[in-house]
Amino acid sequence: MIAIAQTMHFANTLSLQSGASLRDYHLAYETYGTLNADKSNAVLICHALNASHHVAGVYAGQEKSEGWWDNMIGPGKPVDTNHFFVIGVNNLGSCFGSTGPMHTHPDTGKVYGADFPVVTVEDWVNAQALLLDALGIHQLAAVMGGSLGGMQALSWTLQHPDRVRHAVVVASAPNLTAENIAFNEVARRAIVTDPDFHEGHFYAQGVIPKRGLRIARMVGHITYLSDDVMNEKFGRQLRDAVVGSDTGYRYSTQDVEFQIESYLRYQGDKFSEYFDANTYLLITRALDYFDPARRFGGDLSKAFAVIRAKFLLVSFTTDWRFSPTRSREMVRALLNNQRDVSYAEIDAPHGHDAFLLDDPRYMQVVRSYFARIAEEAPLQGGQA
Amino acid sequence: MTHNINLHALAQLVPVGSRVLDLGCGDGAFLDYLQKHRGCSGYGVELADTNVQACVQRGVNVLQLNLDQGLTLFGDHSFDVVLQIDTLQHLRNAEVMLRETARVGRIGIVAFPNFGHWPNRLSVLQGRMPVTRRLPYQWYDTPNIRVGTFADFAALAEKNKLQVLDAFGLQDGQEVRWLPNLMAGTAVFKFEG
């Protein structure tokens, strides 16, 4: 499947949750499959921290350019583009195409940098809704996302209850725990204390705070894996054991000694080459702020009272960043509101990363769920 | 957990239009039947991946949870009916789950293989554990870790102060109300807490 990146420009002002606003912005998006005549087969895919609108397929002439959820979405895949019209959209503040800190502020004519307004999950959902308006789609057959993407899918059902028939929320949570915010804060501090950060205006200096980005990514990466998987993959293996020594150790504090160090450094280096520091700050903040129960005194069941969508929730037993407990909180709140919900708790070893991997039970449950969606007619009055 | 007993007879115990929680719902066939034929709604609880799959496939709400961890997700009397159809015998904490069933449901319905059925007694009298159509496993590979009789359950219900609304046996698809502990392969209890 060949993917084609597209851009939609919005001239009107978008009011943000913070009170700030954005004008003259654009959203990068891709679509796969065909929108049917009554426009009832649209599925929106929301992305997580470091992904984009390039969800599935490959770009023409670029063999290894698969979308980030290409194993899940495409012809004959669990979210089958032979049946569904799938939309991937890049969120505001990102560095992959939609308006973000690297773009020019229309008022000042300068690059936004640190002046890019703080955006929230709710703001993203509002922007996504405007994209759907522009595409002539009133109601989604489903909205789907993992992790931070799952938060957006959930938020869709709260902000636009009549515009979503199904929500598929994978490895997600109704808000971040203190520990989770703590990890984000470590990552942010790594970035903002990098001497090359220049309070977010590093573009003008011709530098990139790569050291900070590397460390941010290393911390993040640790939390996406499970202890077991990391041990299985790396254990205590040395990268380059000293020959003829009984330990193989270099007895150095600064050289790469263990394979896991090498792996994390590699991940950090790779990430710092393509990810924007201001975007990292913005997206982790959006994660921190998301908390739909907050306006209801922390009562998630009250927050969920407006929901009309049916839910499939999936979690993974070894995911400690977005643990099954968090998914069960959402299940409970849906039960308290007597909403339709199915919940799969997949006993997979891969930690949070499992949501991007190919566990056959996970793939099959999503496939089955979407097969059911494909069979049903849109809600009466859905076009109202 | 397979529903290899007469679902039609059990369905008659579930009031039309009930909100149902089916503990150990298997492939969701019974909930599907209740939804289609008795206007019920609700959720199944299952642990096995393949059964969860099957429920999603047939459009039955299913929650993948381990019943041995209790029913903490569910509020008091949040369902009209809580079912344990061929589930009780697989539970480590069968008594706790019975109390939980009474807490979460206004009505509880429990069905399980009756070890007191005469062929089982005969087998034990002959010195061997029974292997029958209803209890098809050998003693060393049975998933039924709780073997009890119709009379045993009645005693457990009394111990837990459950009010039994109806109790009978099922055999060959028929209700057995005469000496069910002897004459029926399946024991059925309908109770409230």
Structural notes for this entry:
- The complex is a heterodimer of chains A (about 375) and B (about 190).
- Chain A has about 375 residues and is of the alpha/beta class.
- Helix content of chain A is about 35%, strand content about 15%.
- In chain A, strands 2-5-10-6-11-12-13-14 form an eight-stranded mixed beta sheet, with helices on both faces.
- In chain A, a hairpin with a 5-residue loop joins strand 3 (about 15) and strand 4 (about 20).
- In chain A, helix 1 crosses helix 2 (about 150-160), helix 3 runs antiparallel to helix 4 (about 210-225) and helix 4 packs across helix 6.
- The radius of gyration of chain A is 21 Å and the shape is globular.
- Chain B has about 190 residues and is of the alpha/beta class.
- Chain B is built from seven helices and eight strands.
- Chain B is globular, with a radius of gyration of 16 Å.
- Chain B has helices spanning about 5-10, 30-35, 50-60, 95-105, 120-125, 150-160, 180-185; strands spanning about 20-25, 40-45, 60-65, 80-85, 105-115, 165-170, 175, 185-190.
- In chain B, helix 3 (about 50-60) links the parallel strand 2 and strand 3.
- The interface of A and B includes residues 312, 344, 346 and 369 of A.
Key words describing this protein structure:
heterodimer; A: 384 residues; alpha/beta; 8-stranded mixed beta sheet; two-stranded parallel sheet; 10 helices; globular; B: 193 residues; 7 helices; 25% strand
How would you describe the shape of chain B? globular
The biggest chain-chain interface is: A-B, 22 and 19 residues
Proportion in helices of chain A: 25-40%
Poorly predicted parts of chain A:
380-384
Let me know the average pLDDT of chain B: 94
Name the helix and strand elements of chain A from N-terminus to C-terminus, one letter apiece: EEEEEEEEEEHEHEHHHHHHEHEH
Q: Biggest β-sheet of chain B: count, sense, barrel?
A: 8 strands, mixed
The portion of residues assigned to helices of chain B is: 25-40%
Strand content of chain B: 25-35%
Q: Would you count the extended β strands of chain B for me?
A: 8
Report the biggest beta sheet of chain A as strand number plus sense, adding barrel if it closes. Answer: 8 strands, mixed
Would you identify the regions of chain B where 5 or more consecutive residues have pLDDT less than 50?
none
Strand content of chain A: 15-25%
Q: What best-fitting shape of chain A do the alpha-carbon axes yield?
A: globular
Secondary-structure element string of chain B: HEHEHEEHEHHEEHE
The number of helical elements of chain B comes to 7
Structural class of chain A: alpha/beta
How much is the radius of gyration of chain A in Å?
21 Å
Radius of gyration of chain B: 16 Å
**Alpha-carbon distance between the termini of chain B?**
25 Å
Q: Could you say which structural class the secondary elements and strand pairing of chain B correspond to?
A: alpha/beta
